[in-house]
């Protein structure tokens, strides 16, 4: 059992922490070289929402699901029907993700394309995505661009920047009063010479120019090895420009690994910057915490639950930092004492408090163990394997 003081400190922290799951994380996805199919992988949006609802029922902190417009909405589909389907599985639709990288028209870019017709097509898709978000009551339109160039001299870098500024500003004008536009960045892949939005500074400038409801989205896997992500978070918080996160982990870059599987201390340090900001300002910043992972090897539901549980644990640990003691150590330049304040919180065992919080909310103490005992995945695998056969889809384990 946790101490009463630890539980009293952490229960309100956990009550206010929610993580959004991604619809695409429950479906068969893989690498550019191929994919390894899983029998229990979702076939359609109904399956994805069922899986997301199952995760939320077990964890109690995943009430919303991010969707990809081209992958999750049929042409002409009524968004309200999607909202009803989500509610039937105990969740709501969260961030709306336009797709500006899949169609052949985007070979040379979308918002950065030299052809105005292609830019208009990309903008119209984003306008449609904003409209879907309004109909669903979604707060966020999440933008990631594959735009860039692979060779020196291929295009004018400043011209592409100007096109992005114009398109993002135009899109911002279409947002509803409750909507926020999240601008994501990525240093490389698929563009290897110059990605149009390659780092947080570029995303910051473009979001700031677009308008007041545009913020930066930080994907924890979209950085070079060794980059100080918590410093980026601190800068964006101080500028009121941090809009959200995509949670994953990486050994090299964008590996889509479960959160904290490589470097949990880094994730703790990121959360510490957020808690420190809240303690200094007297308010918690409004941040969309979302997962962006596509697993080729791990079972998809289990990987999602692992990430959610790790996020809860590290968020709770970071809330235990004694900010007054840390500031005193900082003020007297006691480097060792300051570091030890962080390490003391990081090495605190918060699992008894997490388990107590779950029991208090009618949840299983161990969501992953509860999932494994539930038989949900085996039942889903049987049902979806049968449906794939009826639909004539590729069998699991093949590359057809």
The DSSP helix count reads 15
In round numbers, the mean pLDDT is 95
For the largest sheet, list the strands in their spatial order: 4-6-8-9-10
What is the CA–CA distance across the termini?
A: 52 Å
Largest sheet: 5 strands, parallel
Q: Low-confidence runs (pLDDT<50, min 5 residues)?
A: 396-400
Global morphology: globular
List keywords for this structure.
single chain; 400 residues; alpha/beta; 3-stranded parallel β-sheet; globular; disordered C terminus
Describe the model:
- By secondary structure, the chain is α/β, with parallel strands linked by helices.
- Helices cover 48% and strands 10% of the residues.
- It has 15 helices and ten strands.
- The strands form three sheets. A five-stranded parallel sheet has the order 4-6-8-9-10.
- The longest helix has 21 residues.
- It is globular, with a radius of gyration of 21 Å.
- The C terminus is likely disordered.
């Amino acid at each position: 059992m946790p101490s009463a003081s630890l539980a009293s400190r952490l229960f309100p922290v956990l009550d206010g922490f929610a993580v959004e799951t991604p619809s695409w994380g429950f479906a068969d996805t893989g690498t550019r070289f191929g994919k390894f199919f899983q029998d229990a992988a979702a076939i359609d949006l109904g399956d994805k929402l069922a899986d997301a609802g199952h995760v939320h029922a077990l964890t109690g902190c995943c009430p919303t699901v991010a969707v990809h417009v081209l992958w999750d909405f049929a042409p002409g589909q009524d968004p309200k029907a999607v909202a009803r389907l989500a509610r039937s599985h105990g969740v709501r639709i969260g961030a709306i993700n336009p797709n500006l990288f899949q169609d052949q028209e985007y070979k040379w870019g979308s918002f950065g394309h030299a052809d105005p017709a292609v830019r208009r097509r990309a903008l119209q898709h984003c306008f449609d995505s904003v409209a879907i978000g309004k109909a669903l009551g979604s707060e966020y339109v999440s933008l990631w661009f594959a735009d860039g160039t692979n060779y020196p001299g291929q295009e004018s870098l400043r011209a592409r920047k100007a096109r992005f500024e114009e398109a993002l500003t135009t899109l911002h004008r279409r947002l509803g009063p409750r909507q926020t536009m999240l601008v994501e960045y990525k240093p490389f892949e698929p563009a290897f010479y110059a990605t149009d939005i390659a780092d947080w500074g570029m995303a910051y400038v473009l979001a700031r120019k677009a308008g007041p409801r545009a913020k930066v989205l930080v994907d924890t896997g979209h950085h070079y090895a060794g980059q100080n992500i918590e410093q980026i978070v601190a800068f964006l918080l101080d500028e009121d420009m941090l809009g959200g996160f995509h949670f994953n982990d990486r050994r090299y870059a964008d590996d889509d690994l479960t959160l904290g599987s490589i470097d949990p201390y880094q994730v703790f340090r990121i959360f510490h910057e957020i808690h420190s900001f809240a303690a200094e300002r007297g308010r918690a910043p409004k941040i969309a915490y979302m997962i962006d992972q596509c697993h080729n090897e791990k079972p998809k539901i289990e990987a999602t639950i692992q990430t959610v549980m790790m996020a809860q644990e590290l968020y709770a640990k970071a809330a235990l930092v004694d900010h007054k003691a840390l500031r005193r150590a900082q003020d007297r330049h006691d480097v060792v004492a300051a570091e030890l304040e962080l390490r003391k919180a990081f090495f605190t065992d918060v699992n008894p408090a997490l388990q107590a919080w779950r029991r208090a909310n009618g949840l299983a103490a161990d969501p992953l163990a509860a999932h494994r005992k539930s038989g949900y995945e085996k039942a889903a695998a049987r049902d979806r394997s049968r449906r794939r056969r009826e639909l004539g889809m590729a069998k699991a384990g093949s590359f057809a």
